[in-house]
Amino acid sequence: MEATLGLQVSLASLEKQLICPICLEIFNKPVVILPCQHNLCRKCANELYQPSLFQARTSMLVNSGRFRCPSCRHEVVLDRHGVYGLQRNLLVENIIDVYKQELARQSLPRTSLCLAQATCVDHEGEKVNIYCLSCRVPTCSLCKVFGAHQSCRVAPLADVYQQQKVGMKYLTKFWIFNDSLASHCERESRS
């Protein structure tokens, strides 16, 4: 049992390293490596590179061949092949394959690995499975029924996790758009 728990913790730790900073999911193949050594799903890199509708409508510079890495803000300059000129990271793709095989062997759902580890500090051995919307903290069911969160509004922790993940995805896209707009304005002011 202890070895299985150790493997689950290791898999959860590995999963954090395999998350795309754009879609916030495990990298989808093909995975591309940027000059700054960060990785993206090619699909996500393509979304970063594509001009936004706003840029197209305001006749700004549409195809500059550049974007910024969402992890470190390093400017990525693309050649004539665009995103398809970026190198694939076969090592990361192979690690993802091994990770998914091990996950299937363990027959554990991917999204529950991290959540399955947390236990309540007030109720020994009780899994943290709900989120207190009033206090904005994860907690266990016993805290809701008998403890400090009896009068609070709660939701299933997995549901709140999914909502937060979707919210972060939109914030990331807004941040990237805002950065590309600022870069464009800066280039325009210099010319």
In short, what is this structure?
The chain is of the alpha+beta class and 191 residues long. It is built from 7 helices and 8 strands.
Gross CATH architecture of the domain at 2-117: 2-Layer Sandwich
Distance N to C terminus: 65 Å
Report the top-level CATH class of the domain at 2-117. Answer: Alpha Beta
| Helix content, binned percent | 40-55%
How many strands, what sense, and barrel or not for the largest sheet? 3 strands, antiparallel
Please give the number of β-strands: 8
The dominant shape is: flat
Strand order of the largest sheet: 2-1-5
Mean pLDDT: 77
Order of helices and strands: HEEHHEEEHHEEHEH
Category by helix and strand content:
alpha+beta
Gyration radius, to the nearest Å? 21 Å
Give me the CATH superfamily of the domain at 2-117: Zinc/RING finger domain, C3HC4 (zinc finger)
Low-confidence stretches: 52-63, 108-116
Under CATH, the topology of the domain at 2-117 can be stated as: Herpes Virus-1
- Total number of helices: 7
